[in-house]
Write a structure and sequence with these properties.
3 domains, 328 residues, five-stranded mixed β-sheet, single chain, 19% helix
Length: 328
C-alpha cells in the first residue's frame, strides 16, 4: 500500500473503520479540515438532512456542507447514535435513529454486542479514547485551543508507523524549545459544577503552550522530528482530545509542573552599545537575519541552524538501509 505524496491525509482506511462503543453501529473516521477527527455515517441525500449536520469529503478530508458534485452528504455519528438522547432531533432523522435503535437491540439480544456501561454523553459518543491513558495528563494549548494529552506532555509519543519495525514509532513529540508553561483561561462551563470549577481555580490553569506556527503543525500531527513531513502513515489514531472542563476537571493544574526549566547555555552574555558597522548576514537561503560583528564564512542564524540540523538528522535516518522495504 502506498500513499500519494499529494494526499492530504495520512489516515489509512483500514485503520479508520470502527464501531461505536455505545450502540455498535459501524462508523468510519476521517480527518477534519482543522486536523481533528470525526466519525461519519455512509452517504445520504443531502436535501432532508439539516444543514448543520451535513459533511462531505474532499481528498479524504471532511468538510462541513454537502458535496457540490453529487448532492450527497455524511452525518456525524454522535448526531444519530441511538444510545444517546436527542431531544431536538429533526423529524427527517427520527426514522434513521429508529432503525439504528432496532439494529442495536437485535445485536444485544443475539449476544453480538455489549454496550459500554459509562453514562452516555453525546459529545463523547464513539470518541477514540487513548489506549493507555495515564493518571497525570497535561493540557496543551494551541492559540487558545485546548487539547488533553493521554499522558504528561514530555511522554507524548509519535503516532507514525516506523518503516523498519512496521510498529508505532518510539520517538517522542516533546521538544523543550518549542513551548512553555503558561497560565491560560479555563473555558466557560454552564451550571453549578462549572461555576464551582471557576471559583476554585480562579478561572485559570497551567497548560503547555505552543504558539509558533511551524512547531504547531508538528504538534497537530502528533509526529516526531524524524517523521514530520516524511509522509509516513499513522499507526494509531490521533490521541489529543478536545479539553472540556466538566469532563476533564481532574486534570486541571493550578500549579506549574516542575522539571521543565531550560538549562543555561553557559555562554557569556555580551551587551553591545550599538551597531559597529561590521555585520554578518545569515548564509541560509532566503534569510536576511544578521548579527553584529564578523563571523566565519557560512555562518547561519539560530533558526536556519536548527532547520539544518533537523534536515540532516532526518536525511541520516532515512538514508540508512532498512532490512525490509516499507509496507506503505
Amino acid at each position: 500500500m502506498h500513499l500519494h505524496r499529494s494526499n492530504q491525509t495520512r489516515l489509512l482506511r483500514r485503520t479508520a473503520a470502527d464501531r461505536c462503543k455505545f450502540c455498535g453501529t459501524p462508523i468510519e473516521w476521517f480527518e477534519r479540515y482543522d486536523t481533528l477527527r470525526i466519525p461519519l455515517s455512509p452517504e445520504f441525500p443531502a436535501q432532508p438532512v439539516p444543514q448543520k449536520m451535513q459533511w462531505h469529503l474532499s481528498k479524504g478530508v471532511a468538510y462541513p456542507g454537502r458535496d457540490p458534485f453529487t448532492g450527497y452528504c455524511r452525518i456525524p455519528h454522535p448526531a444519530i447514535c441511538p444510545a444517546a438522547d436527542h431531544p431536538d432531533l429533526p423529524e427527517e432523522l427520527q426514522e434513521v435513529v429508529s432503525r439504528l435503535a432496532v439494529r442495536m437491540r437485535g445485536r444485544i439480544e443475539r449476544g453480538e454486542f455489549a454496550p459500554y456501561i459509562e453514562p452516555v454523553i453525546e459529545e463523547q459518543v464513539a470518541f477514540p479514547d487513548p489506549d493507555e491513558a495515564q493518571e497525570v495528563r497535561h493540557v496543551i494549548s494551541y492559540y487558545g485551543t485546548l487539547r488533553l494529552a493521554p499522558c504528561e506532555v514530555h511522554e507524548l509519543r509519535c503516532i507514525s508507523t516506523d518503516p523498519r519495525t512496521r510498529e508505532r514509532c518510539v520517538n517522542g513529540v516533546f521538544d523543550l524549545d518549542e513551548g512553555k508553561w503558561e497560565e491560560v483561561d479555563i473555558p466557560y462551563a454552564p451550571g453549578r459544577q462549572g461555576q464551582q470549577i471557576l471559583t476554585v481555580t480562579g478561572g485559570r490553569m497551567w497548560a503547555w503552550v505552543v504558539n509558533d506556527f511551524n512547531y504547531l503543525r508538528r504538534w497537530w500531527k502528533q509526529q516526531c522530528l524524524d517523521h514530520f513531513g516524511s509522509g509516513a502513515p499513522d499507526h494509531v489514531t490521533f490521541e489529543l482530545i478536545q479539553f472540556h472542563p466538566l469532563l476533564h476537571d481532574d486534570y486541571i493544574l493550578t500549579e506549574r509542573p516542575e522539571g521543565y526549566d531550560r538549562k543555561p547555555s553557559g555562554e557569556e552574555i555580551v551587551i553591545h552599545d550599538g551597531p559597529t558597522g561590521d555585520n554578518t548576514v545569515c548564509a541560509g537561503p532566503g534569510c536576511w537575519h544578521s548579527t553584529v560583528g564578523r563571523q566565519p564564512e557560512g555562518w547561519r542564524c539560530w533558526e536556519c541552524d536548527r532547520v539544518e540540523r533537523r534536515r540532516t538528522r532526518v536525511h541520516r535516518r532515512w538514508a540508512q538501509p532498512a532490512s525490509d522495504p516499507p509496507a506503505w
